[in-house]
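Notes, p. 3: input format for complexes.
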Amino acid sequence: MKFFIDTANLDQIKEAQALGILDGVTTNPSLMAKEGITGADNILNHYKAICNIVEGDVSAEVIATDFDGMIAQGEELAALNPQIVVKLPMIADGVKACKYFSDKGIKTNMTLVFSAGQALLAAKAGATYVSPFIGRLDDISTDGLNLISEIRLIYDNYGFETQILAASVRHTMHIIDCAKLRSDVMTGPLSAIKGLLKHPLTDNGLAKFLADYKKGN
Ligand code: G3P
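Output follows (217 residues plus SN-glycerol-3-phosphate):
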């Protein structure tokens, strides 16, 4: 399973990259705003900065909600760097734009996906990635992980190559469950990724090894 970090914070991206386990980055307008990145030029420059830190795919989201606007913005984003994946909302014009970019060989990520039917449409449109938001489904008492299972089944039934990118991942158990369910990618916060490291027996065991070493030296 690929690990993407879901942030626009450059320090956190650098920290995840330094761990050696990072495969890419996802962002969205809310994450950009959280870092105080506003204005079209600043946002484009920020995407370039992210691409300079990581080697993998970097999802950059269009703001337009009409087909022509999505094409114009998506082409501008894709021209920034070959790592850029054009992120499109799961609405009718987003599906059309996804097909347009897929036909041109430009990578796409269909976002704000909350149902298996939406994921089926994304695959039909040739999306590189589909982003089911599991945490936001959990927020409304709906099983987000069940959506990952449904999409996995449907994609495997027909050999769709669209990669399932589990998004809105909030904690370590989401990551582990996504891996069990054969999600292709998960994107989550640095805290969830680093949370996978933690185990008290590791810390206690290491402390004991070091103490025993000191006794003998
Ligand atoms: O990857 C999608 C993500 O940014 C949304 O996460 O926590 O706002 O639901 P969240």
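Strands lie at 2-6, 24-26, 57-61, 84-89, 108-113, 129-132, 163-166, 185-188.
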